[in-house]
Hints:
Chain A has 317 residues and is mostly helical.
Amino acid sequence: MLTYLAKRLLLMIPTLLGAAALIFFMLRVVPGDVVEVKLRADGASVTQEVIDAERSRLGLDKPLPEQFATWLVGLVELDPGLSMWTGRSVVDEMSIRLPLSMQVAIMGALIATLMAVPMGTLSALYRDSPIDYLLRVFSLVGLAVPAFWFGMVMILLLLWLFNWLPPVIYTPFWVDPVANLSQLIWPALVVGIRYAAVVARMVRSSVVEVMKEDYIRTARAKGLDEKAVVIRHAMKNAMLPAITVIGLEFAFLMGGLVVTEQVFNLNGIGQLFVQAVAHRDFVLVQNIVMFIAVVFVLTNLVVDLLYAALDPRIRYR
Amino acid sequence: MTFSATTDMQAAGLRARPGMRRKIARFVVTQPLGAAGLVTVLVMAIAGALSPYIAPYDPVAISFGDMLSPPSWEHPLGTDNFGRDILSRILYGARTAIVMGLMSALIGSTLGAILGVASAYFGGVIDLLIQRAVDIFLSLPIIVLALVVVAMLGRNLVLGFDFNLILAIAIPIVPNVARVVRSSALSIREMAYIDAARVAGYRTSRIIFRHMAPNLMAPYLIMLTAFIAQAILLEASLSFLGLGVTEPTPAWGLMLAGNAVDFYRQAPWMIIFPGLAISLAVFAFNLLGDSLRDWLDPKSRLR
């Protein structure tokens, strides 16, 4: 188990290194950077010397491989540089926004799982019934509706039904859970419901497959009632592929956050990323992208570990 | 019946196209949802193309006398905070959505297909490098990747369309298509007819274009349709974030951007209709893509 874990962690290094190189050089293929955006923002004429001075202050005058090496060392030391726009440390900028985004992401994943597992299972058990048809419509609609518009409609509904808007100031959960949830439950519902549309389809097809297995026939033959067959035999096996999707999609939930945070005006990682892109703040952009890549790689690892924990047929090697 | 028609046509020296009309009729009968999607897509395309003739108003004409007026006979979908007619803006927006969606999906899918075929055909180090890059790109949500490209390229208007934006939408599509096309191409590469072509001494380019490519058309078309939907959604999201299509071009995502949220109370129609347009367009292309997949590749129906 421990050797397996160590091996997996070591295997993450080349993947993340590749991601770092790809992002770093991609951002720098085309000329133009934050210095120009910042100093020439109002069409002001700035002398070349001022621009050069600012470039050298930010380390942009050094050769690219050297900049890349500096960044890599910074990543390992958890000091990956300063935002080119605000001048504050990237770690500070991200860590003040992280709790909010992570809370919304985790609540979204929970909502999605709680919705998708029963929906997918029911529609697999009653194939071609109204429930099944409803799920198909739900997943098609869920994939078609843009997350940001879904959020706006949710706000409209809150206004119409309750004449109430979610609070705009973030309160940490441990300070005031009610205030915290009354703000964050809505974006979590938005990302969660869209995510449920994807996961429910996967749960459905995996339950359909499992119900054809021999051990289901055996369980029925030995006289178990249908409830026990479904819950103890079918669901337990069908959940493995479902966990993979939930895990994989977790990183993609961060993509949903980018727009959802904008709608609900939440000062999270997603909004930080959008601002960084608008300012062409490459340091911030590359570090947020690396963060998402790390989340993706880690959730993959957790999924694999869970897989082995849930399925005794799978052993670590 | 079908059999004799086909053989007659082949006998007459025609290419084996057993009645396009009959094919379409079969598609409509076996895939009613797909047909509905196709009709919606066609209606949208026609509305977008004819928008200058059918739109009741100029989509960019500001009229402070008509600010935030609710849906009425003069303005069926109401007006926005500049008094611009929302119906006209949605009709013109269809043009933007379809052009951007089609171009970026086409560029992305084609680049992806080329990479996928190259990866499968050449194998070895080329395959390894392409697949590692694909893996890395696939680990990022498409909107994040699109935003990285936006940060990288900035803006570049060509003939009124932001070509860099098209690239920003196309690039996230590339790895997805490359992965699927590669696996299809790998199985085709093992077919006897490819060996036969190689033994016959054909050039690599001829084998790829004349023997492999036609057999990859089905997965390519399926992905292209599906990714038009994704591209429309992505364009709307980027425009919503203020990093996509810019004013004054009418675009659905842009209609919801910026200060649209200030008008929740006074003018909900400003928010409802553009979003419905995006959803309907994406829904229609998704339906079409799904049915196309069931129709052209019945094996994958379960997924």
